[in-house]
Specification:
The chain is α/β, with parallel strands linked by helices. Helix content is 30%, strand content 18%. It is built from 10 helices and 12 strands. α1 runs parallel beside α2, α1 packs across α9 and α2 runs parallel beside α3. It binds S-adenosylmethionine and iron/sulfur cluster.
Length: 321
């Protein structure tokens, strides 16, 4: 079992498979970064798997693949298959922008993927294009339909932004409700990489928009999820992720691995340690020692707040959001 320095049980590993992305979302990567990590610096699926296997042996029961855009990695289904062959009952999920999903959704499901979170910020082609930097909506919607048809459990992520998609909060909620998918509204997290004139919405403003149309009831947080759940009168449940609060830190169960092999104890901190050399040498004991060390130093709570400048400068596309 993996326990961090504050006594929290850690059983959730998020793996960023690449920092590269085919979108240029205004809130994440509005410009192509000055330089990408060279492809040869990325951990191969074989090396990643060596770490994943050890992490599972140590107590990881839940894995999420993210990025950047994870569907840009060739042979993604092969990596999923490797993990699921080793641990068929692993809770294996992925976060994607959905653009390249339609042709591969069935393969991913057959390889063992269980759940998908797909980002959908607008149902209007021109707004979606403005946020993502190119015309994306048709492909994303096809990706969502293909994932549902393949039998994957799908949740939708939306980041509401004032003057851009804030008038679509209810539309997206209803789109998801009609298809049996949970939507999670994510408060925009300010960061140095984002477009500077963006204005996010506070959780209570997002709820106000929904309350204009629906009566909502609080449910609460489930397990270690950062999403606070709400329910409509008809039983439909949606989530709100409010990173400006620290109240999910006390039940934090996660650790992150970047595509280059850095283990990150908290999304909002710059500290990280690399397991790359260890796994490339096949020294799994050393990789596990580093994992335990990083967990021992996992901070008690994130430093995220608008008043502090101490939060990490690492981009969301590197850490996987
Ligand atoms: N490319 C994939 C995608 O967009 O779903 C996975 C990686 S992305 C970094 C993961 C999640 O982080 C997405 O749902 C995205 O909306 C969210 N995200 C990225 N930057 C954000 C920001 N500044 N504030 C809030 N959420 C953000
Ligand atoms: Fe790419 Fe996802 Fe970041 Fe958008 S949020 S730029 S899709 S990594």
């Amino acid at each position: 079992m993996l326990i961090d320095g504050h006594g929290r049980k850690v059983n959730y590993l998020r793996i960023s498979l690449t920092e590269r992305c085919n979108f240029r979302c205004q809130y994440c990567m509005p410009e192509k970064p000055f330089s990408w990590v060279p492809k040869e610096n990325l951990l191969s699926f074989e090396d990643l798997f060596k770490f994943v296997r050890a992490a599972i042996d140590e107590g990881i029961t839940k894995i999420r693949l993210t990025g950047g855009e994870p569907t840009l990695r060739a042979d993604l289904d092969r990596f999923i298959q490797m993990i699921c062959d080793y641990k068929p009952d692993i809770d294996l999920a992925m976060t994607t922008n959905g653009y390249l999903l339609a042709p591969i959704a069935k393969q991913l499901k057959e390889a063992g993927l269980k759940r998908l979170n797909i980002s959908l910020d607008s149902l209007r082609p021109e707004v979606a294009a403005k946020i993502a930097g190119k015309d994306v909506l048709a492909n994303v919607l096809k990706g969502i339909e293909a994932a549902l048809e393949a039998g994957l459990k799908v949740k939708i992520n939306m980041v509401p932004l004032k003057g851009l998609n804030d008038n679509e909060i209810v539309d997206i909620l209803e789109y998801c409700k009609d298809r049996g998918m949970q939507v999670r509204f994510i408060e925009y997290m300010e960061n140095v990489h984002a477009h500077s004139d963006l204005e996010g919405m506070h959780g209570k403003e997002i709820l106000e928009r929904i309350k204009r149309r629906y009566t909502i009831h609080k449910i609460g947080r489930q397990g270690s999820s950062p999403a606070f759940l709400y329910q409509l009168e008809d039983g439909y449940t949606f989530g709100l992720i409010d990173p400006h609060k620290h109240d999910f830190c006390e039940s934090c169960n996660r650790i992150r691995l970047t595509a280059e092999g850095y283990l990150i104890p908290c999304l909002y901190f710059d500290e990280a340690m690399s397991i790359k050399e260890a796994v490339q040498k096949g020294d799994i004991d050393e990789a596990v020692r580093i994992l335990r060390l990083v967990l021992a130093n996992k901070p008690k709570e994130n430093r995220w707040s608008e008043e502090t400048s101490e939060a990490s400068s690492r981009a969301f596309y590197e850490t996987g959001g």
